[in-house]
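Job type: complex structure
Entries:
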Amino acid sequence: MTASPETTASPETIRFLLARRSAKIVTIVEPGPSPEELTTILTIAARVPDHGKLAPWRFILFEGEARAAFGEVLARRFAEVEPRATPDMIAFERARFLRAPVVVGIVSSVQDHVKVPAWEQQLSAGAVGANMVAACEALGYAPAWLTEWYGYDEGIAAALGLGPNERMAGFVYIGSRSVPKDDRPRPALADVVTTWSPR
Ligand SMILES: Cc1cc2nc3c(=O)[nH]c(=O)nc-3n(C[C@H](O)[C@H](O)[C@H](O)COP(=O)(O)O)c2cc1C
């Protein structure tokens, strides 16, 4: 087969991906993406490898005043599951979703399928998160992908209307950077790469 004359090479994308870096949640500030930019972010997030074209994921948006309203849900549930919670801790829960202008919940929605196992559908949800944080940063925004306690709490799952085959893949907080990007240690390829050869 000969190479297509239409090149897909994008050195800028390579430079971008080599330096991609999430933000620390405490450093995220206004502004968040515009409605058009958020649509672009979600469109890119939904453009991921997906065996069987099942789209085994969906998004829940938390914007504007809904973030404070959801904070009330978090605070109530936190007090329920953590009887020793202090007023400060409850207040933190109330303000949790106010830490960024926009929060996108990524729901992994596994479907029964004869050919596509749950594992592959969950991996696709992970790819959604990775595409989403990359898209945020490529538009100039600061993302933080967190699960925290409420990502695993069944009371919160019920409050969010998750079905029996659904679970949170995380919440992507999106705003702007208030501090320059740092980096964190990255794995040495020598530690994670082997070359298979026959024994
Ligand atoms: C599924 C998933 C859940 C995460 N949940 C948390 C979390 O609850 N708390 C946290 O501090 N970091 C969490 N992280 C890590 C943050 O996203 C962290 O900022 C990220 O690993 C930084 O990576 P990067 O610099 O390569 O973007 C999570 C990451 C993933 C993939």
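Summary: The mean pLDDT is 97. The two ends are 32 Å apart (CA to CA).
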